[in-house]
Amino acid sequence: MPCPKDTRRLVDLGEYMTKQGGKTMYHRPVCVKCGVEMRPERNGVGILDMADYGPYQIWDADKYKCPECGYEIVVGFGCNAIAEHYQGHFSMAVE
Hints:
Blueprint: H1 13-19, E1 39-51, E2 54-65, E3 72-75, E4 83-84, H2 90-94
Antiparallel strand pairs: 1-2, 2-3, 2-4
């Protein structure tokens, strides 16, 4: 059943999160298959973002894992990349 028209609205999450002190995740991810909350497996995972031409950015994020089936996801990316392709230290960080 669709929501009544007066309750549907777009929310600017960026502005909302800023007002909430910059927090980006209030509830742990839930495994769709198992229906249980995923658990943090490792914080501070470096994620290499690729472009068509090669490495583009490095992001800091968190890895979560389902305690039932073992499925893993990466969430909780920071607001900005920690390194970008045009920066001098980028190639060292990628290695």
